[in-house]
Write a structure and sequence with these properties.
Blueprint lengths: L4 E8 L10 H15 L9 E4 L5 H8 L5 E3 L9 H11 L5 E8 L8 H10 L1 H7 L10 H6 L5 H16 L3 H15 L13 H6 L2 E3 L2 E2 L9 E8 L13 E8 L15 H10 L11 E3 L5 H10 L8 H5 L18 H4 L6 H12 L13 E8 L2 E8 L2
Parallel strand pairs: 2-3, 2-4, 9-10
Antiparallel strand pairs: 1-7, 1-8, 4-7, 5-6, 8-11, 10-11
Length: 391
Amino acid sequence: MTAKAIISGIGISAIGRNTDVSALDLTEQASRAAIADAGLSPADIDGVATLGDTPPAEASARLGIAPRYHGEGYSRGGLLSYVMAAAEAVEQGRARHVLIYRTVKMKGGNITAKDADEARKRGPKAQAAATATLPTMMADTPQLLAYHGYAATNWLGMHCQRHMALYGTTKEQLGWLAINSRRNAALNPLAVLREPITMDDYLAAPMISTPFGRLDCDIPIDGSAAFVVSHPGYAADAPNAAPAIEAFGGSTGPGAWTLRPDYPAMASVDAAAEMWSKTDLKPADIDIAQLYDGFTFLTFAWLEALGICERGGAGPFVEGATRIALDGALPLNTYGGQLSAGRLHGHWSLHEACLQLRREAGDRQVAKPLRVAAVSNGGGPIAGCLLLTSG
């Protein structure tokens, strides 16, 4: 299959927690790094695609970009929607080099469990106002809130408990994923959590929402990741190896959080099916995986959705953390994942996949040959995934 697009440049900002650096400044850091990495200047960038966390007009003005293509959106493949849109834009000739970025700040306007609880106490009208910005694909959110399920920690905790009941998945198996992620983060100088953890540490962590403890949950950060998605014809001129976007898939439902007939499966099943329908590659071809880990169980869900293991088989797959180690059969979340490196809404995963395929990951570089990387993002009713291949 001919690649739709290449990722010619990658960049990442400084990473921190509760910093005084503005979202615009973080976006500029990552974007300038990505443009330079691609061997381009801002004048060469003719497209910008983002979810709008830093308004694209502001980012373009700061960077000196005058894009003719603008891509935004959320409903196609969640947080990877605009990556997919950028790939199609360059494939169709609407742009040649598209800058994409994702920027996060810990201090923001997201609805929290505390917000929802306070709204509940103030009455139905206040509760409705607090949740009015939730996407329509979360149709069962009012019911979840009515039964005191105020956050994704609660909702996905129910998924995980159902998985445990159906397949015998254990708390310790979730722990092996967290331990492996921290082991990888120790080799990543940008990761915010680098101290090793043991199974005893994991099991002793404070409970957040059964069965998730603190070490099952990702760590919020301030940071930005940026990429230049270019036409495949630019590969020969790019100064660095440019991974190709082989195929992708996305889904935003149906079934909301709890209404799927195959519960506890999620939209990841549908996203993966779409992606595999667009390529001759198979799950056995994946050499390395960077899978979404907003919570440990989401990675389990992706392992199964992508066909890397059978449904119900994720727990045994990661047990002992040997198969998923840097020298294992399927190195997983090699930068430390969101659990230890920090929550960049899955876009650090894309950055890491590119680094690994370019063989530029430093002390955490996987030694074996790497041709195919899987990247995924999202959980519940929102999911996107893609395959990258080395040049």
